[in-house]
TrEMBL record:
Assigned keywords, A-Z: Ligase
Protein's UniProt name: Acyl-CoA synthetase (AMP-forming)/AMP-acid ligase II
Domain of life: Bacteria
Record-linked InterPro entries: AMP-bd_C (IPR025110), AMP-bd_C_sf (IPR045851), AMP-binding_CS (IPR020845), AMP-dep_synth/lig_dom (IPR000873), ANL_N_sf (IPR042099)
PROSITE patterns the UniProt entry points to: AMP_BINDING
Family: Belongs to the ATP-dependent AMP-binding enzyme family.
Amino acid sequence: MSVFLSRVLAALDDGGDHVLFHHDGTTLTYREAGELLSRFYGGLSGVHGTVAIDAGNRPEIVLAQLAAQLRGVDVLLIAASASRPARAAALETTGAALLTDSDLDALAGSEPSTPDTLPGGVTTVFPSGGTTGVPKLIRHRGIYDGMAGIFRPDGTRTVLVTAPLTHMTGNAAVLGALLCGDTVVLHRKFDADAVLAAIERHRVTALSLTPARLAAVLDSPSLHRTDLSSVRQLSLGAAPLSPRRLTEALSVFGPVVGQGYGLTEAPMIASISAAEVLERPELLGSVGRIVPGMEARVEDGEVSVRGLSMMEGYHGRPPIGDGWLPTGDLGHFDEDGYLYLHDRSGDVIVTGEHGTKVASTAVEHALLGHPRVRNAAVFAVPGPGGEGELVHAVVVTAGAVTAGELRAHVREELGGEHFVPAAVEITDHLPLTAVGKVDKRALRAPFWRGHSRGIA
């Protein structure tokens, strides 16, 4: 019997009139969520194999997911950022029955039903980010009973979720809150001013942001007039965070800011607390130490991991078991076991006549050290005649600054000409993926159009 599902049902039964969701100006209590879950369970009586959910951010996503899993059905969560071909490929590969927003609305009118017995476990399939091509399908099973052991009844927290519930970050945040009996403030999309308003209105105690979304919050004109005193935990992750932005976040939110490192394949790998950073400022650039139950090593510059939070495996491939998973992230450990990430292996720029390797995040952090740079993205573009690669930067600025000044700043900060962007574009904003990462693929695409591959 699934300990996870048992805990979920108990939480819904015990929650009563306590609010589970604030969403779109309405509330959904634990009792109401339990009733809706029973209707979804009844409506899915004829479904077998795999159910795919592709819908906008709404509570029904998680409730339909749980209803399907109570039926012993695997659940494929279609990423909000997935392209139309990627969506079609995921459905074809898994043979899943698709549930969209209209299907969720229809299922909510089904006759309620409750399970007599619980399945032995649950499986959720998450597409990878697809930053290197067609997304892989990642099967998770063991982490759910692990969550049931980690998240204990509390009921005192209010968690703000802006990430898509079809993404690991948003999905795990809501399931964790449910297991704790807490309240979720769920937004359909990210908006910095809406985040700040929600923190003050609902007395939000915990939230998670990507670096790009943290930057938007820190740069919001509403920040200085917002009461942030309720926030007890601000978790940052999903992409490298510049030391300057982490310092700023600690100054604004206080000693409640922590940083985590994980992948969809292994959601928790390393973490670092505000207390550690405040005690040792030199750790500002670290993602922390490896969490209990996980192991990591660096081979040829690349981080590999294994342990308790690992996926079951990629769909259609053998389970990974106790094997090591190469993360695609480049990094190193210091003598105290703190992990520092340099870049994604695919984001390393090979430039100059000697093929010098430049980590794009190193240049981004140098640019972000300039007082007038608010955000930055660095990537490779083809050199003259399509030969070799050049370092290219796109930056968002506050105040007057020239491309030449920014190039000189990078040269001064990093000390090598190969780090200096060949060109710096100044723009009003950077495109983001649905989960809040800077969309370098979109930025790169115009430069590589007409080339047979995205590397020269």
